[in-house]
Amino acid sequence: MTLELFLQHMVNGISLGSLYALIAIGYTMVYGILRLINFAHGDLIMIAAYIAFYSVAIFSIPWYLSFIIAVLFTMALGIMIERSAYKPLRSSPRITVLISAIGVSFLLQNLGIVIFGGRPKPFQVPELFSKVYEIAGVNIVSITFFIPIITIVLLLGLIYLINKTKVGMAMRAVAKDYDTSSLMGIDVNKIISTTFGVGSGLAAVGGVMWSMKFPQLIPFMGVIPGLKCFIAAVVGGIGNITGAVIGGFLLGLGEILLVAFLPELSGYRDAFAFILLILILLLKPTGIMGEKIAEKV
To answer: I need a surface site. Which of 36, 129, 199, 249 has the fewest CB within 10 A?
Structure first.
């Protein structure tokens, strides 16, 4: 393998890993507070992508405004899902909430088929994100530059929110002890809704960028990315934001390099993620940066 080809694969791996990391943060935020795997998180990727698509295709809204609309709508949808599907079950057994999350996922997928149709739709990528540059013999599409930059900026903003603001302090308190936080005057329901809103917004940004990197929309487009980002969160240590980022990059780079060095296994690219999940659960169940947490009764 030539140096140029290796660099090409590394660039692609970093770009894909950035996408996984961004979406995995949403999983890990919700789990950190509610101990809930929100399996509907991946379907929010699909919703955001379709909203951005139709905003441009039907309403002729400029692409930058359509992306903002997609993020805001998806954040509102995430909050609505939390209040309607998860909040009423807050005192129920954990398995009940998990089943509800799976049901919401199926609901969104089938609503996508009914509303948007089952035929694939081409996502129109703005010229800013579709230019191709050649650097040191490596061809790089401009979206490949933007994805890691946007991921880093949003990650820094999230870290600031969690560590430097009252809302972030309340999020950390609720994550540590749900009941005590309520006794200390924290509006737990508001904090949980805020967490869902922020996580859904990150999923929306990831969905829009995913659509520009892989410009084809189908109602089930969020299933595999959602599962892989869940795996990335588990690998990094679910509940730990930094761990989710590390897990996302490891998974993205691992997938690309697997195909690069073992092209005969390219058909097993998706299987790599699930094999990695099994190994992590066997060898280090808490993930790279996760900590063992006692179950809440």
So the answer is: 129
DSSP per residue over 3-63, as a string?
Answer: HHHHHHHHHHHHHHHHHHHHHHHHHHHHHHHH----TTHHHHHHHHHHHHHHHHHTT---H
Pairing mode, if any, of strands 138-141 and 132-135?
antiparallel
The answer to whether position 264 is within a domain reads yes
136-189 per-position pLDDT tens digit = 778 888 998 899 999 999 999 999 999 999 999 999 898 888 788 888 888 988
Three-class DSSP category at 238: coil
Answer whether 20's CB lies under 8 Å from 228's CB.
yes
Contact 198/184 with Cβ under 8 angstroms? no
Amino acid letter, 83:
R
Q: With respect to residue 295, please indicate whether it lies within any of the assigned structural domains.
A: no
Indicate whether 73 belongs to any domain: yes
Classify residue 291 by burial, with Cβ atoms within 10 Å: 0-12, 13-18, 19+: exposed
Give pLDDT, residue 35: 80
Q: Which of 66-80, 87-101, 246-260, 274-288 has the highest mean pLDDT?
A: 66-80
Range of the domain at 205: 3-283
- The CATH code of the domain that includes 17 is 1.10.3470
Instruction: Name 76's Cβ contacts closer than 8 Å, sequence gap at least 6.
Output: 197
Q: CA dihedral defined by 252, 249, 43, 212, rounded to 10 degrees?
A: -70
Q: Is residue 84 part of a domain?
A: yes
What pLDDT shows up at residue 297? 44
Split into its structural domains, the chain has a count of: 1
pTM of the full structure: 0.90
Percent of the chain exceeding pLDDT 70 equals 97
